[in-house]
Amino acid sequence: MISYSIFTLCFLGLPLWSTSPPLGGENSSKHFLPSKDAAVVVVMCEPYNRSAGKMLEKYGKRLLEPWVRPYYRTKYWLLGPDATPEAFLQTIRKAAKSHKVVDVLIFAHGKKGYLILAGKKTLSNAQIVQGLQHRGGEKIRMVYTTACYSQTHLKAWKQAGAFAVRGAPGVNRPLDFPRFYLGWMLGEDFRKASQNGYKWNKILHQFYNQLHPFLRQTLRLSSRWLQKYQPRQPREKKLYRRLKGALRIMKHWFRTSWNPEESKPYFLGGNPRIYQNPHTPSKP
């Protein structure tokens, strides 16, 4: 599940949650991978909630791009309606042709055995294997996905050639991504960065669950006020539409309490670092 209002707030706390060594720390020179040899494919897609989708398309790349820029020669962005299953697989194959490693970041919905992309089109596990096995999938260093039930996708990505994959067993709320990515870009290994992100995720889940009754009541009162309010000026009407859109997103996001176990990270494959090429490890 995706909510970039909360996603943005999580990024504001990034510097406070790092206990990682800086990039280029001890022994990193043994496996250093220059950014010119790496590419990242970023998928951001919200086909169910149009208000959230517009926010994602408008702010998602702007928010994440400064964090990926120093570490990858090429950044491939598939946003909103451009994030079709066909375009996704083609982009990974394209990136693999001219780079030694490819990282994949997926911000999309999912169900058991499928990713849900633009237009609610699905990408099945079988299609991932068929589209990438021996066709660029072997260049994938890591796949980080926020999709729900993405634990059921792990074997497909591994079979397609990915070195390391991370997924969640249930309805995933990706509040751990900022802390994960901070650790990843500062040199933590893939699993440690994910596990540290999950610790942050659990803190946010606990905080949210304590506030949940108050938030629900606040949203109900806000909805009643909006129903009675009649905007007259064009400026007021524009603000009114934005508030209604924001309320729709928050109602969807806050409709139930959260279970952090559903977002617990599960792994398959190796355990790389951002400065390593796991496909051609250096000799000791």
Could you characterize what this model shows?
- By secondary structure, the protein is of the alpha/beta class.
- Helix content is 44%, strand content 15%.
- It has eight helices and nine strands.
- It has helices at residues 4-12, 50-68, 85-98, 125-132, 154-160, 177-185, 190-228, 234-253; strands spanning 38-44, 74-79, 101-107, 109-111, 114-116, 122-124, 140-145, 164-167, 266-269.
- The strands form two sheets. Strands 2-1-3-7-8-9 form a six-stranded mixed β-sheet, sandwiched between helices. A three-stranded antiparallel β-sheet has the order 4-5-6.
What oligomerization state is this entry in?
single chain
Arithmetic mean pLDDT? 82
Spell out the helices and strands N to C.
HEHEHEEEEHEHEHHHE
* CATH architecture assignment of the largest domain: 3-Layer(aba) Sandwich
Task: Enumerate how many helices there are, as a single number.
Answer: 8
Q: Main sheet?
A: 6 strands, mixed
Query: What is the gyration radius calculated from CA atoms?
Result: 20 Å
Q: Kindly state the number of beta strands.
A: 9
Structural class: alpha/beta
N- to C-terminal separation?
42 Å
Give the percentage of residues in beta strands. 15-25%
Helix coverage percent: 40-55%
